[in-house]
Every structure is written in structure tokens, then in C-alpha cells.
Amino acid sequence: MIMSFKSWFFQASILVVLLFTTPSFANLDVNDSSKLINDICPTTRFPSYCLEVLESIPEAATADLKGLAQITLDLAISKASSTLDRIRSLIPQTTDPKLKQAYKSCSEHYDNTIGDLKEAESDFKQGDKYGMNQYASAAMTEAGDCDDQTEELAVDPWIQKGNQDFDNICGIVLAISNHL
């Protein structure tokens, strides 16, 4: 009987310890992720945009640095793809020859952008943070070239916003790559 009580008491003690320590470990991960985001975002050109974007993605709240890198690379690829789709939809609708040519050129730039981002992702997965950074920078340059070519034209406002958002997201990717 005494052995049973000791065994029961030991098991109950372990259970109590687990109940009190497990929530604190869970909070530690979230706090570490929050700290990580708060460390990264000030190193971007637009810290408030960075915070807004990363805080709007539920997975980012519990991600480590590599998880944040993958999340932002996925987001950049998604934004580039949606911008490219929009540009391609505008080409046949546009009657202004200069604007049509600018959209065609932007389409080529965004094709290159997506390729650059896929290379950045490949380098990231291979542990090459410098290659990741280089290709993310190249993607930003391609999108910037589109922005430059449409600067003086009556371009669709969605494209201008897409270029700006893409540039800001790539800025987050670069900041994260610098922390890897």
C-alpha cells in the first residue's frame, strides 16, 4: 500500500510540474517569434509595413528564422505572380502603344522576377544565404525596372501598388537573409 501511494504521489508530482511548465514553454516560443519579428522589421526600409505583413500571417507568430524566410519567400513569389497575372490581363485591353509596350516589358521583368525568387528559394534551402540575398535583390531590380518604365505613363494603379508591395516584401526577405 505504501508503495502504491509513493508511486501515485510521484506520478501526480510529474503531472503538476508538466501542467505548470508546458504553458510557459509554449509562450516562450511565441515570445521568441515576436522578438524575432521585432528584431527583423526595424532593419527594413518600412518597419511598420513589415510588422503589418508578418503579424497578418498566423504561421509567422510561431516561426523560427528559417520559417520566416520561407514564409516571406512564398509571399514574394505569390505577389510577383499576381502582379504578373494582372499585367498580362492588361496587355490586350490597352490601346495606348507606349503603355502596351511598357506592360509587355513589365511582363518580361516579372517573369524574370519569379525565376530569381525561385533561385533565391533554392539557395535558401541549400543554406546559401548569400545566394538567397543576391537573387532576392535581382528580383527587386527587375520589378524596379518595371516601375521605372511605367513611371511617366497612366498605368493601372493596381500595378503601381503591386510593384511597391513586392519591393517591400523583398525588403523583408533581404532583412531575414541578413539575419540567417
Could you characterize the architecture of this molecule?
InterPro entries: Invertase/methylesterase_inhib, PCW_Enzyme_Inhibitor, Pectinesterase_inhib_dom, PMEI_plant. Belongs to the PMEI family. Keywords: Disulfide bond, Signal. It holds the Pfam family PMEI. Helices cover 82% and strands 0% of the residues. The chain has one domain (34-179): Invertase/pectin methylesterase inhibitor family protein (Butyryl-CoA Dehydrogenase, subunit A, domain 3, Up-down Bundle). The chain has helices at 2-40, 47-55, 65-90, 97-125, 129-150, 157-179.
Give the biggest sheet. none
- SS summary, helix count: 6
CATH architecture descriptor text? Up-down Bundle
- Percent in strands: under 5%
Q: Please report the distance between the alpha carbons of the first and last residues.
A: 57 Å
* CATH class designation: Mainly Alpha
Give a count of the beta strands, DSSP E runs of length 2 or more. Answer: 0
Relevant terms:
elongated; mainly alpha; Butyryl-CoA Dehydrogenase, subunit A, domain 3; 180 residues
Break the fold down into its secondary structure elements and pairings.
Blueprint: H1 2-40, H2 47-55, H3 65-90, H4 97-125, H5 129-150, H6 157-179
Helix pairs in contact: 3-4, 3-6, 4-5, 5-6
Organism: Xanthoceras sorbifolium
Protein name: Pectinesterase inhibitor domain-containing protein
InterPro entries: Invertase/methylesterase_inhib (IPR035513), PCW_Enzyme_Inhibitor (IPR052421), Pectinesterase_inhib_dom (IPR006501), PMEI_plant (IPR034086)
